[in-house]
Structure formats: structure tokens, C-alpha cells
Amino acid sequence: MVKDMDWKTYYKERLVTAEEAISHIHDGDRVVTSFGCSEPIGIENAMVENYERFHDVQIVSMLTLGDTPWVDEKVRGHFSFNSFFASASNRQAIADGIADFTTCHFYEIPSVLKDVIKPRVAIMSVSPPDENGHVSLGTNVDYILSTLSYCDVKIAQVNKYVPNAQGEAVRNVSEFDFFVEIDRPLPEVPSVAITEVERQIGKNCASLVNDGDCIQLGIGGIPNAICEELKNKKDLGLHSEMVGDGVVDLIKSGVINNSRKNIHRGKSVLGFAFGTKKLFDFMDGNKDIEMHPIEYLNYPPVIAQNDNFVSINSCLQIDLHGQVVSDTIGLKQFSGVGGQVDFVRGATMSKGGKSVIAMPSTAKGGTVSRIVPVISEHSAITTTRNDVNYVVTEYGIAQLKGQTVKNRARALIKIAHPKFRDELCEIFERRYGEKF
Ligand code: COA
């Protein structure tokens, strides 16, 4: 027990090479890893280099920013990959059946891991220990924190580039079995230039946010555009499963000050950070930003405890009923549900809350409408028509909750791209037997 010994002795006794740490992975094991900016790439590289030592080991993770080496031909039979969120490096492998995909709401991932997938080993990135023997899980707490309570083997990649993020990211060295010191800069998600369409979507979304509201921002190209348009708001709160670089300036300038929150007043709370060194440096030692595990943070009744909660997420396609497709394009798994439905429902339950789905009106260089009469064959619904409320494009805002099916369709057609509106109107008139 670490309490009976000095933490430095405990740490030193368990400080091993990557080769030794991974020797505790057995054939047939399921191994859960931290994802995104926290992916423990140094230890993963050692596993790939030594792939012949492993048989039938399943790696379970989420939105990977690394190369997903588990899907390479060379390691077939040694490693396989099971993801909660497809990314550029494994989308094709999932489509080809080489990798597999598990879908569930983000707040449920910790229980799905523990009770269904049952990984025996967990590997994650942490910051170097401080003088009290505390490390930080850095950019990602999400599902990885709970693995410390049930996995048999917990391996930490100790990396000086991992920010000393606060809240529940702060752990004692006694919670880990092995430490491997590998310093390497974290994978980053660069901000891309905001397009004119995104800027207009940002303006339309910002018009739904009032001073004092608590916000959540999702993933994709739109959140940074929204942050730009929130600069003139006051007293916003932040309670978000993830954040990108866009929030840094809003917190620094005091636009986000969390002063009107009912829970976590004065603190920005998040499950994972998904950005660049600008964001990591801002989080480092910053006690105004607290990391919390996803089974708590994304649980809709927790989200709903803050009044006037506004969730803003994106989608790929929406039909005239208001059924929202956010993570598949036909049979292809494009991304994952993440916490979209958690926040749609939490915001809906919040007193004065609003859920917003924001998207450009077209895709594929303007050649297809995202607002369609019928969802593409094989696509899966992410947010149901009973959950959706505000839908935003660059052409305006459709408010759907409580509206008749005809009025939902009318509202959506009005915010479709003008070049697709006539066709959608004709379909409306055929479907409902009345003039648009
Ligand atoms: N038909 C065909 N292709 C489509 C399409 C459609 N209806 N909609 C989008 N695409 C294509 C786009 O053209 C683009 O491809 P391109 O870059 O080659 O043009 C690609 O799919 C990605 O679309 P885009 O809208 O640019 O994606 P994004 O990076 O902004 O992310 C989501 C948008 C919806 C994929 C992303 O927000 C997501 O995964 N959401 C679900 C999870 C979630 O909301 N979680 C909550 C918070 S983390």
C-alpha cells in the first residue's frame, strides 16, 4: 500500500520500460486506451514494434488522432481495433470490416466498458508527479478515469507535455501499476480558417444564446465560428464534454466566467480537451477549469441542473421530420454519437434550456442538400425527431419542438439552400396535398 510507503519509492519501484509494461498484456486481452490528445502513442509504438508477442488483443478506444496502427495488415491476428468514434485513420478500416465500432451514448461508455467490454488493461497519458505524488490525466478524463477503479493492469505513460489539468484529472500515483516515462508532444487538432458559411451559422447560433446562459459546444468545423460570435456576450457558463481552442479567448476575456451557474459556479467543466498547445498551456495548473468524468458530466439530469443550458452540436443530414443523422453517411461510419444526445436531452430538461443542431445547408462542395425528404439508405438516426428542437443553417433557424409535422417540414425547407428549395417544396406539396 502506498500509504505505508513514501510515494517516491512506490513510483520508482514501478517505473519500467515500455517493453516491460506491455509484457503484462496477455493474449486475448482487451486493452482500453485514452484517446485524442491523450493517446499514449509512445507505449502504443512499443506494442506495434513487438506485435509478434501478442495474439488476439483488442484495443478499445475512441476518436484517435494517431495512425491507428491496429488496422494495418501486418498486425492482423495480433491486434484488432474497436472504436467508439471513427476518425480519419480508421474510417475506411471500419467500412471494410477490418476494425469494428461500438455505438452508445457517451455518458454510458464507462458502464459499457466495465460491464460489457471488460478490458483487463488500461493505458493512458499522465503528467509527471508533483511533490505530493499526484499526476494529472491532462487533456482527457472522460471514460478513462473510471478504468482506474476496475482494470487489473493500469499503465501510465508519464509525459512532460501533458498539462497539469485540475479537477478529477488529479490522481495519486498509487492508482497506477506501472509508469513508463516517454516525453513526446501531444497530438493536436489544429484550428482551421472559418468559412463565410460557418461565420453566418455562428451568428445564427449566437442569436440563440443569452447573457448568463450555460453552453456546450460540439465537434467539427462550426464550434470555433460560434466562439467568434459569442465575444460580445456576458457571464456565460461552460459545461461541455469537450472544448477546442475557441474557448480560450472567451475564458481569458471573461465572457465565460461561470458566475450564473447552479452547479460548478465559477468553474468551466469539461471531459476532454481537443485542440492545440494553446489550449493545453491554458489548462496547465488552471484551477478555474475542472475535468470531470463523462458518466457524471454528460448525464442528462446533471446537465439539466444548470438553468438556461444551450447545447450546440452538428450533423450531416436531416430529413423533413427533423430526424438528425450525425455520425453515418449511408453504411459508412463517419464519426460517432459522442455526447450529442446526452446534451440534447440535458439541455431540453434544463429550465429555459435549448438544444441546437447547426450545420451548413449543403455538403460535398455545395452539390448535395443536407436537408432531405428521406434519410439516405443505411444511415442511422442519431437524434430523433422527438428530441430535436432548434436547427440552424447559414439561412436561418428552424424551431421544431411542438410543431406539427407539416410546420416542421416548412421550417426546415425555409433554411435549406435556395437551390434545393423548389425541389423540397414540390415534395412537401405531394406529401401533404397542400401548397407550401
Ligand atoms: N452527404 C454526403 N457527404 C456529406 C454529408 C451528406 N449529407 N454531410 C457531410 N458530408 C461530407 C462533407 O462534405 C465533408 O466531406 P468533405 O470534407 O470531403 O467535403 C465530410 O462529410 C464532413 O462533413 P462536415 O460537416 O465538414 O464535418 P465536421 O467536421 O464539421 O463534423 C459532424 C460534423 C456532424 C461529423 C460532427 O459534428 C460529429 O461527428 N457529430 C456527432 C457527434 C457529436 O455531435 N458529439 C457531440 C459533441 S462531441
Describe what this molecule looks like in 3D.
The chain has about 425 residues and is an alpha/beta fold. It has helices spanning about 5-15, 20, 40-50, 90-95, 110-115, 145, 195-205, 220-230, 245-250, 275-285, 295, 300-305, 340-350, 405-415, 420-430; strands at about 30-35, 55-60, 80-85, 100, 120-125, 135, 155-160, 165, 170, 180, 215, 235-245, 270-275, 290, 310-315, 315-320, 325, 330, 330-335, 355-360, 360-365, 370, 370, 390-395, 395-400. The chain has a nine-stranded mixed beta sheet, with helices on both faces. A seven-stranded parallel beta sheet has the order 4-3-2-1-5-7-10. Strands 17-16-23 form a three-stranded mixed beta sheet, covered by helices on one side. Helix 7 (about 195-205) crosses helix 8. It is globular. The mean pLDDT is about 95. Bound molecules: coenzyme A. Coenzyme A binds next to strand 12 and strand 15.
Task: Jot down its keywords.
9-stranded mixed sheet, alpha/beta, 7-stranded parallel sheet, 15 helices, 436 residues, binds coenzyme A, 25 strands
Unreliable runs, pLDDT <50, ≥5 residues? none
Hetero groups: coenzyme A
Radius of gyration (CA) equals: 22 Å
Task: Count the beta strands.
Answer: 25
Helix run count: 15
Calculate the mean pLDDT score and round it.
Answer: 97
Q: Numbering strands along the chain, what is their spatial order in the largest sheet?
A: 8-14-13-12-11-15-20-24-25
* Global shape: globular
Major sheet attributes: 9 strands, mixed
- Please give the share of residues in helix: 25-40%
N-to-C CA distance? 72 Å
